[in-house]
Prior knowledge:
The complex is a heterodimer of chains A (425) and B (341). By secondary structure, chain A is of the alpha/beta class. Chain A is built from 18 helices and 10 strands. The radius of gyration of chain A is 24 Å and the shape is globular. Chain B is mostly helical. Classes of the chains: A alpha/beta (425), B mainly alpha (341). The A-B interface holds A 71-72, 75-76, 79-80, 91, 94, 236-237, 240-246, 248, 383-386, 389, 393, 396-397, 399-403, 407, 411, 414, 418-420, 422-423, 425 and B 77-81, 87, 89, 96, 107, 110, 112-113, 178, 195, 197-198, 200, 283-292, 296, 300, 303-309, 311-312.
Amino acid sequence: MLRFGMKRALTATVALGALMAAGGAAAQELRYMCYQDGIECDVTRALLDQFEAENPGITVVVDVVPYQAILDNLPVQLAAGEGPDMARVTDLGGLNQHYLDITPYVDAAYWEENFGATLDWLRSGADDTGIYGMMTQLTITGPYVNATLYELAGMEMPGDGATWDDWAESTRAVAEALDVPFPMAMDRSGHRFAGPAMSNGAAYFDDNGDPILVDDGFRDFAATFVGWHADGTMPVDVWGGAGGGTYRDAFAEFANGNLVLYMSGSWQIGRMGSDIGDGFDWVVVDNPCGVAGCTAMPGGAAMVAFAHTEHPEAVASVIDFLAQHDIYSSMMAQTNQIPAHIGVASAGVDFTAGEDAAAALSVFSDQVPNLLPPAFALQGYRFNRAVYNATVTRLTQAIVGELSLDDALMRIDQDIADALATAEQ
Amino acid sequence: MAVMSSPERPSPLRFLWKPLEALMQAVLNTVEIPMRWAQRMLGQQKIAWVFLLPNLLIFGLFTYLPIGVNFLYATTGGTNLWPGDRPFLGMDNFEVLLDCENYLDPATCRRDLFWVAVYNSAQFVVLQVGFMVTFALITALILNRKIIGRGFWRSVFFYPVLLSPVVVALIWKWILQREGVLNAALVGLGADPVNWLLSPDWAFFWVVFVNIWFQMGFYTLILLAGLQAIPPDVYEAAEMDGTKPVRVFTRITLPLLMPTMIVVLVLALIRAVQAFDEIFVLTGGGPGSATMFIVQYIYETGFASQIQQFGIAAAASLLLAVVLFILTMLQLRATRRQMNG
């Protein structure tokens, strides 16, 4: 009896083991490394629940990480052949060598039709026709203004065509009238700095397409920018409060009412709605002008697949699912982002963040015709982060008085030359 | 009622002794055959290496091999991670790092931030280790006396050691930032707030202070153990001779504590050279590069840049390893001298 019982137990155990092994072989667990400025990863998670319901056997784990992990840790993981199956990245062309071409698994015509304008940002060059992922947001840089402070001060905001100097003067007047700590602030980012510098005439590239950061336009705006920190127009905390190329935003200062104008970008709209709420009225205004134009910087984040994945077809099916018109539209509506999907953009998006957000998104969208050619060139440049890092590191040293402006500018050129020399070895 | 000890009481596990003894004997008999053979083949001198082999393998794999790999990276260039894909550069990376017109002025160096980090680290090591060991010694001397709540105070001083460096940095950041606790207190007292982490000098001061606060308890504990190891009869003899307290400290306590002091000094030195995490969270190396130390430079050059200069970072870390090696050698030499009297 006992022997019979043991035999049955053994058979059941073996059968269960075989079943589990078969199940394990069929189940495909994918990992998506995601950062969020607002609720982007949460919204994606909810949409992926729908995907998992429609695709039994594929599960997607969304690992929400800080933005700095995407910048610092992910490239090292990828270089070692490790890392997630998919990630949300902003170093679009820089990570191209690690991307998975999902063309064989998707309707390429649909992708070209709807994402054709931005697919090039993820490609290695003109000869590359691969599809590596989709932009989960298009971003445009621009200034947010605390409208309530202007109202309390009884002052008018500068009008169309206002320059950066006009805004500096105006915000200083408001700050002085209401005892607000700082008139203006800009995120600690070379990307944010680039727009105003280009408006001031900075070309960033020579005729051959090689980076030449320091020209007269760059120098002039750098001098103005350092001067704003010296005279208290901008708080030293944001740029001076860190070293190296570390990213730091000034959102908290703006949300706490300590700033009149905050130079950031469209990705902050979600936080404006959720963190400021009814605290005060804010508006997005046109990018201030300089001698060369009134340009913003385009940018954005993309969801990409990586070549080392063991489940390329499953990964492609996840990205393709999220790229479908209705799903993508829902994602844009919930996250209040400018869509990169041409069909969705044409049809319009029912943004969920209310009138303020819709108005802000409209102003950001209006900046696109004003973008200067160097803005597109820099966004598409493979080593743009090396340019941004050198800008931030060295200008910070000038702001805190470690280097003269001339030395800082000389070091920017030197840093980029050294980095490019390493890349070419 | 006195508690009776019962050494004669038989152990409840006594029935296991015989089988265990037999098992051990069987194991020894099995091992003895190859060991005898190995000894016959290698000789009595070399058989020691057989016993050292497991540890040597582990050290080789996790210590010496990474140093070798690091050397490989330091002598190659490019951005590829796989050594086979990297072009050989010889000593070029070291030359780039050491390319200076005047070593005392980082601004004249090609890699100025490397030298800024070197000088910041040197300054930090001298100040942090000097003050910390002094304060740790004073604290240990006080805690070694019969004071009220001695156990409580020992815990208080040791508590920060238990915290994560990131937690320590975040706590102090909340205290020191522009709208932090310290400035709130100053404003409450009618004083002007100070940008503690935005002035290079203040930021450096607080980096040193926070590190002392964070690590002092560990070294206090080691020194306290050293103090308690000094035989009390030496002090009793000095007391009977009417020796003054200062003389007791300089002639008895300090010389007998010296071996412990050297260990503390060298451990603190090595840790100070390696300082990174708490400082990176507290100041990010700023303002500017005022608190950027050598490990942060290595991290930023090798990992935080888009174009990852692994070769330069590896060369810098090898130079750091040389410094740590020299410090360790100094420790061994000083300890040996102490032991030899």
